[in-house]
């Protein structure tokens, strides 16, 4: 038990996503030192190469870090997404590495002792925990807890604001998610490992101390296997600054161990895991062994000069212990993976210790040894350093290669050569020593003085046959089934290419070894299956598959290559085994399977021992004679006394082989005598009894009469046509109803000849069959009598599979029913077609013909009403083909999601595990950080989504807020909802937004009783659809908000879905406080509809995800027939009454006199106006007005028709071309309304099955377009590109077309989206991109060309450019622009264009003139930005919160209270300033604001006066509020 085998490896180090890439990095000696990635922290703030000893500065900017450390696939491990966000990325990396290590060990599908498998991990720190604790630590500083100073309220507020922008709030998982010990426990939990599980912290030697613990547990027997490793991720600058402070880090940014230029290490990161088990167990199980751990030594430096100063004596103690434990001499070690930190003291002490121990053992005879340190390539990974060295040394032994170091100038002070150490700068073949196995050692020394040394030895040679098997068939000529899988088609394409490259570059990899290795893996959802026999064939087909996958191809790709998305377990098709009857028997059939698969051979041998006596011959010699063309054997197989037991034995042997592969039928049926092996597969009959019965049955049939007294004729006719054909022909009966268009006649020879002649006369195809008797007719009824006695004694068992008898064409449910059918089996017709139709009920079946080609499948396909809803799989061809057809069939089953275990198909000598890239998962980012450093987070990320310019809803909600704030009496909460009748009359759509949702009142109609299962299923179905989580993933204890990430809009959609199915269901806001999990929703609904809900299994029904609209009956009350009595109209009137009762003036529909420019007049009062969108002051411009007047004179005030038919005017195309020229697109199209443009374009181009994702602050027109389209709609947090990326990563593959819609300038916050990043996201996910430029066209860009000009992007990268003509362009209408093809298509098909009048001549002329004038007067655009910048600058100086506004003329003033917002707007109006308030729920209450629209016409004096008055009134308002609350 002392020797411990390393049987699996996994690692993730800089430049290396797996062990193969790690080895390639090592062989190339490729350094991985780079600048600090911008996504970690803003290193420029902490970097100064000239500052040494500054605790807040690093003198280097070089590190060796991983990419994508936040990527993870929690669903694969059953981890709730919210918990994944709270998990330290180090823990997530460990879970991923554990999967890859177990997969590499070949244990992913193979059973191992999970209950006694331990997890031993080296970790030292959690930067993620530090990030999570940052706000609290900062508050301790700000509130005076950590010093004698006073609390700083402003600093505390700033900390709270920064925290809200930068970090997700803590949650229940936050504490356990960042504790070090949870790193090991997360692995144990994910893989159900019951052995010891803990984390070791011994600083840089942590991983190897964990290894020592694992070795002790394995040797003592308390563990039978162990996962061991270490991990380190550097998420904050703490470690780098700390090591710079002590001078341990290289100032040159290069780690050079044992080099005269060495000046310290480079900070690295990564992780690795190894799978261990006792060597004897590994060899017994046939594991691939990378290396053997012979001994481990651990010590501490004890009294050293300091915690960071190593001591030779301590390291010597560890070395001595290790070699004593291993029982080998240090001088036999030919390769040492040293600790090698490239520090002066560290390297000197390490070499001194090695020299001393080697000299003690061998004296002057010390053999040369190669010295190496991977820190020269990937830096110092701290607690993971030991496992980095262990994996490297294990690979070196496994591949018999001395790995190189990068170019090194040995430090002369170390005297390496004199001590027998060599450093190779190139990879060397590692020749085997003459008197002992190859040996290596690994050292790891930690701060604080804990030292570890591990002695390794190469694995014992394992005999693997790469040429022949026991059966004598050359392995290289055998075809093999290869199953590759991934989480998505794109990943599968990459995976296929990576596996192909691995095979192509490793000539030792045989098809058998690759197939076996892949067979040990659990398949992921997207699967590729193919069959190949040679390396060239395999490489070629993998390449073909990769190319096809990249192009989006799936299904049958030809040459036996198949790609499919396996359905979930709940949607998995049922498997139907079909067993053939007489007629398929051939000499040599299934001989390839008998030769290749021992279990098939053994089953046949066992059964034929009881058959041979009955048939008077050897079954084996007849089916597989020495001479393939044996005429006597061919003739013998036509005899029914021989044929029937042969078919039974072969069918049973195939069932056994398939069962070995884990393939078991759900339903079975057999044609004629195929019914008996089918009964064995159904569990009704013992295999030996079945073979014995078929022997007697065949003999009884043969004894009925002489061969040739009758026969059978296949007639291509329906049952009705057949009945007409046999009219007046005696001694002919229907023997088989095979399919709707074929009946096999059975009868006397001359009668059949008469029938054949009649068929020929009328052109009905009829074919005689080669049979010995008129089977399944009254002519052989005596056979039923002959077998009756034995049938009565035949022991039948209860069936454990669905058995469909072809005697009755119905399901047999018990042995008595089966026996009853078999009493007439010989003489009754075969009702195969009827049996197939019964088996196919409910659809989604996989019909598998066990052997005998595909004849039954052809009949089955013609017998089912919808063949496309089923699958048909053959497992044997016309001739033996070394199992290729069998493997292709298994591959089809794998692709269809049927569990298939290929491991039993490999003989012991063929089980050669090799290293291949791990199967890739679909990952997405999980992090508590909201934004990357240097890029601000969005302050409105959590606000509810509302149609920003839905004025009716906006006004209604504002008045509700005012009523609540002033305490006015008025409408009750239940009265705010539409009447139940109205609610029920409108079917809630899944994409309906929160503004249009209302819950029914208390007087809803009675709810009919609902089954408990229906409630549970529909709740789960609705949650699955709205959340986009797989139905199969959901559990009752999932919290819809906490675990599944529901926001308020999704909750509203969920409630709407419930009310669609249960129209009388009432839900009050207060009810939601007690509803957390899916089970809570089930219980709450059940309580309201009067149904008890004990634990009920959830079944998936497609209708649950898309329930049909329910038909309702309505009465004829006035609320339905009199508009004045509509509840919503009455509520509207009541709201305005509340305004008057509370002395509040209606701020809407004020009458403005004159042009909307910088000034306006209301009721004789002059005001500075910040409430219009006349950004460039072109509305009212003399040239624009003149153009409108001239157009009116020429063309009238309206074109009076749609442009498509008779309404086009020269102005229209001139405007279209001017827009296209401005936008730099191929074409454009003007429409009469900006709002309608979005509605009609989105509604026209997208539909059910598509996805539209939009910013949470999207304009109402976008939301209305989504509703019209019927597409699924999903918002993402405002201006949060990472959230968009995450959303699409999760759900993109579920939809056909995907449209991303954003605005060029957001009219609420005055901010601009990151268009280049949006384009990158669009391309990455295969989506379309639409920009609404209502507030950016004429505003952004050097010439007013909009956001595209602003960022300088290629305009064609945006698919649709939309904008309005009513803002900068002084007219009224909208436009859509893009490629010529799409615009031309829209001209002829867009409903809002084709069926609408064209733009009025004066509006078209005004906008055209405005565009031209904008170019004539570019100073207007310059002035606009100067004025906007002045307003923003003055507002900030006055302490006004302007949110995220930057570079636009939209400037908010955030007040944070809706009532005060209205009061401030009124105060400004009284002082001569017009501005609109924006209240909850248009924004969050804490973000209620005034919104100022600056124009080019505003003067600096107007702006200065406005900001001064704003600051004064705001101060007065806040002072008054403070006084009231004091």
Characterize the structure shown.
Residues 1013-1089 form the Carrier domain. Residues 1-458 form the Ketosynthase family 3 (KS3) domain. By secondary structure, the chain is of the alpha/beta class. The chain folds into six domains: 4-126 and 179-457, Peroxisomal Thiolase, Chain A, domain 1 (3-Layer(aba) Sandwich); 464-572 and 897-925, Alpha-Beta Plaits (2-Layer Sandwich), CATH 3.30.70; 575-707 and 772-881, Malonyl-Coenzyme A Acyl Carrier Protein, domain 2, CATH 3.40.366; 988-1108, ACP-like (Non-ribosomal Peptide Synthetase Peptidyl Carrier Protein, Chain A, Orthogonal Bundle), CATH 1.10.1200.10; 1147-1175 and 1420-1525, Aspartate Aminotransferase, domain 1, CATH 3.90.1150; 1199-1417, 3-Layer(aba) Sandwich (Aspartate Aminotransferase, domain 2), CATH 3.40.640.10. Helix content is 40%, strand content 14%. The protein has 53 helices and 45 strands. Strands 6-5-7-8-1-9-16-15-10-11-13 form an eleven-stranded mixed sheet, with helices on both faces. Strands 35-41-40-39-38-36-37 form a seven-stranded mixed sheet, with helices on both faces. Strands 28-27-22-21-29-30 form a six-stranded mixed sheet, sandwiched between helices. The chain is flat, with a radius of gyration of 40 Å.
